[in-house]
Every structure is written in structure tokens, then in C-alpha cells.
Design brief:
The chain has helices at about 5-15, 65-75, 90-105, 115-130, 145-150, 165-170, 195-205, 230, 260-270, 270-275, 280-295, 300-320, 340-350, 380-395, and strands at about 25-30, 35-40, 45-50, 110, 135-140, 155-160, 180-185, 210-215, 240-245, 255-260, 330-335, 355, 360, 370-375. By secondary structure, it is an alpha/beta fold. The strands form three sheets. The protein has a seven-stranded mixed beta sheet, with helices on both faces. It has a four-stranded mixed beta sheet with strand order 1-2-3-12, with helices on one face. The protein starts with a helix and ends in a 7-residue tail after the last helix. The structure holds pyridoxal-5'-phosphate. Pyridoxal-5'-phosphate binds near residues 114, 116, 142 and 189.
Length: about 400
């Protein structure tokens, strides 16, 4: 057995398809984000502008968040020191769960070390608790939901993206008495489109199914208090479990679910990914608390983000760039080829100081490789004009078509 050869071949496959991942080495400049430093060259750090961060609202540098973390660090030290069950249940964790339950109008919330873990361990645990459960999954669901569904051992039915007729067809095909769970996202982060939450809940009511929504790309950003699309659409009370991250718009780290007391108690008591791991550092949780509280009371960041996204979409469209049909803050440009997507990204970084990561398979389907821009309150119009000009120049140079 030649192990080396197997590993070499695995890496070679990625290179030959043009989707070998290269991580860009950066440091963000607190207070000046989206300005950052890049350590790609050999002549010391080079200034860049970050266009692909999921710190959507720049809360990672918000003075309230930074101060709360400094204070916590000096008050209680660095780590939590244990699992939630054994020494690691800090008062910050208890407060944050209360704050998140209130954000979604649910009885309780439960913290995890990341959004990925929250999806994986909640879905797998839920599936195991419901005997014979069938899980209905939107075809564009995130890898962490897919992992959770697989780990649940349940039968899975994949419905075509946002296709209600297909979902209903699959629901109707199951026995009335089979436990059913519909799992989907609110904002799909690679296309920037939104799920029809009420219509999905109507089907859930009709076929007596539970619902699970991933609001990772919506919490903090939609709804009057940042409760996500389910808050904006006044549908939160119709959803069984709402899941979110604390690492994107909230700017720090961690994940959570919010649901009824009974369900949260079950997950808390049965989910290995919650039980057998050290709880989040209280320093992180203190930062999240400040962020969630701030965004509950302030729509300034949300409004500025929506305005920035609208401006950038208009600039791209006016320049003839192939901006995709996003109805949200996500601004994707279709490239349709992994090698070209990587090449454009490389030129942007090397020649224009623009950092945007190419999005390739398996994050998106093959043939739909793209560049995904996430403008926010800190990206100004001059930056957007420079970016648009750079993209048009590169599109010309690579002899790619611009719309008339
Ligand atoms: C990023 C992401 C997650 C995982 O959240 P993390 O907190 O980054 O682990 C889950 N779902 C979706 C749709 C995501 O994009």
C-alpha cells in the first residue's frame, strides 16, 4: 500500500480541476476595516481591501464589542475551563442564551461552539430522537446541515431549491404517521435569495412536520431587531427551531439554536456536540452579548449594509458585469469556470489590493463558480468605484463578455 501516492493523487485531482484552495494570510485593521494587511508577498504586509468577509456589519471592530471582551478578559480570564456541565457554565453563557431566546421570541436558546456544530449536532440528535423520522432538505442546504442529516441516520428527501410543489410532492408521499422534519435556510449565502418561509410553514402544518431554519446569513441583518428573515416576515413563531451563528453579522464566534423549552432541554441533554466539548470562552460570549444587544436596538448598521449592497449591484450592472439575481446583501458575480474565478481573484489581489475569494465546487455546483462580494457599512462608494473599474479591466483582459 503506497499511502503517499493516494494522498498525492487526492491533491492532484484538486489542482487539475482548478479548485485547490489557497488561504490568503491577512490581518484586519481594527477601526479601519475593510482595510487590512496581506502577507502574500515577501516584502512585508501589503494593504488590501476585504470584500468577502462574513463580518457583514463590521461588528468585529465595534467599540462596544471590543470593550466588552477586554473587560471580560480582565475580570474572568481567558477560557471557560470546562464543558457546560462541568465548570464551564459561566454567567455570560446564561445571559446570552436568554438574550438569544428573546431575539427570536422563543422560550429558550442553546449555545454551541460554532454554527456548523449547532447544525450538525442538533439535526443528528433530533433525527435520532424521532423514531423513523424522514428529513426533507432543500438541495442548497449548507454542508453542516447535510452532515447533521447524514449523522442522524434518518431517511432524507432532497427537494429542489425553494420549489414548494416539489416539497409538497415529497411530503405527500410519506405515511401520515411518519415523523417529518423540514430543514432549510432563510438567506442562501451563495446566491443571495430567500426562502418562502410562510409557504413552507403552511406545508409543515398541512403534513404535520417540524421545521428547522438556518438563519446564519440573516441574524443581525434582517428584522427590526436583527432576528432574521423569520422576524422580518413575522414567521418566527411558526418555526420549530431557529439556528444562527455568532461569527458572521454578530462579528465574534459561536452558534446557537432557539426553540421551545422542551426541545432545547432534549438537545442540551442528548447532543454530543453540545455536551462533550469545552464551552465558548467567556471573552467571546461577552463580545457576542454586546453585539446582539447593540443590534437589537440599532438598525443603522443594517440600513447601511442594504444601501451598500444596492449601490454595488447597480455599479456592477451599469458596467455590464454579470451580477446574479440576489434579493439580499449578497452580491455574487457569475464566472462559470473555476480556473477563471481563481485567476480573477489572483489578479485582483496582486494588482489591485482587492481581496475576494473565488467560490468553487463543492461550495457551489460545478459550472456556477463565482466571486461573492459582501459590501457592508464600512465599504464606501470610492472603494466600490475602484472595485468596479478593476473588474471591468480584468474582464477585458481575460476576454470575458460584458453585457451591453
Ligand atoms: C457559515 C455557515 C454555517 C456555519 O456557521 P459557523 O458559525 O461559521 O460555523 C452554517 N450555515 C450556513 C448557511 C453557513 O453559511
Amino acid at each position: 500500500m503506497n499511502y503517499d501516492q493516494i494522498f498525492d493523487q487526492a491533491i492532484d485531482r484538486l489542482h487539475s480541476e482548478g479548485r485547490y484552495r489557497v488561504f490568503i494570510d491577512i490581518l484586519r485593521n481594527k477601526g479601519a476595516y475593510p482595510n487590512a494587511r496581506c502577507f502574500a508577498g515577501h516584502n512585508g504586509p501589503k494593504p488590501i481591501t476585504v470584500w468577502c468577509s462574513n463580518d457583514y456589519l463590521a461588528m468585529g471592530q465595534h467599540p462596544k464589542v471590543v470593550e466588552a471582551m477586554e473587560e471580560a478578559l480582565h475580570d474572568v480570564g481567558a477560557g471557560s475551563g470546562g464543558t457546560r456541565n462541568i465548570g464551564g457554565n459561566t454567567h455570560y453563557h446564561v445571559d446570552l442564551e436568554r438574550e438569544l431566546a428573546d431575539l427570536h421570541g422563543k422560550e429558550r436558546a442553546l449555545l454551541f461552539t460554532s454554527g456548523y456544530v449547532s447544525n450538525d449536532t442538533t439535526l443528528s440528535t433530533l433525527g435520532k430522537l424521532l423514531p423513523g423520522c424522514v428529513i426533507f432538505s432543500d438541495e442548497l442546504n449548507h454542508a453542516s446541515m447535510i452532515a447533521g442529516i447524514r449523522n442522524s441516520g434518518c431517511e432524507k428527501r432532497v427537494w429542489r431549491h425553494n420549489d414548494l410543489a416539489h416539497l409538497e410532492e415529497l411530503l405527500a408521499a410519506e405515511d401520515e404517521n411518519t415523523p417529518k422534519l423540514i430543514a432549510f435556510e432563510s438567506v442562501y449565502s451563495m446566491d443571495g435569495d430567500v426562502a418562502p418561509i410562510h409557504a413552507i410553514c403552511d406545508l409543515a402544518d398541512k403534513y404535520n412536520a417540524l421545521t428547522y431554519i438556518d438563519e446564519v446569513h440573516a441574524v443581525g441583518m434582517y428584522g427590526p431587531r436583527g432576528g432574521g428573515i423569520s422576524e422580518r416576515d413575522k414567521a418566527a413563531d411558526r418555526i420549530t427551531i431557529i439556528e444562527g451563528t455568532l461569527g458572521k453579522a454578530f462579528g465574534v464566534m459561536g452558534g446557537y439554536i432557539a426553540a421551545d423549552e422542551k426541545i432545547v432541554d432534549c438537545i442540551r441533554s442528548y447532543a454530543p456536540g453540545f455536551i462533550f466539548t469545552t464551552s465558548l470562552s467567556p471573552v467571546l460570549v461577552a463580545g457576542v452579548l454586546a453585539s446582539v444587544r447593540h443590534l437589537k436596538g440599532s438598525s443603522t448598521e443594517r440600513d447601511a449594509q442594504q444601501a451598500a449592497a444596492a449601490t454595488l449591484k447597480t455599479m456592477f450592472r451599469n458596467a455590464g458585469l454579470p451580477v446574479m439575481d440576489s434579493t439580499t446583501h449578497i452580491v455574487p458575480l457569475m464566472v462559470g469556470d473555476p480556473v477563471k474565478a481563481k485567476k480573477i481573484s489572483d489578479i485582483l489581489l496582486a494588482e489591485y489590493g482587492v481581496y475576494v475569494q473565488p467560490i468553487n465546487f463543492p461550495t457551489v455546483p460545478r459550472g456556477t463558480e463565482r466571486l461573492r462580494f459582501t459590501p457592508g457599512p464600512a465599504h464606501d462608494e470610492a472603494m466600490m468605484r475602484d472595485l468596479t473599474k478593476a473588474l471591468v479591466e480584468i474582464w477585458d483582459r481575460l476576454e470575458m463578455r460584458l453585457a451591453a
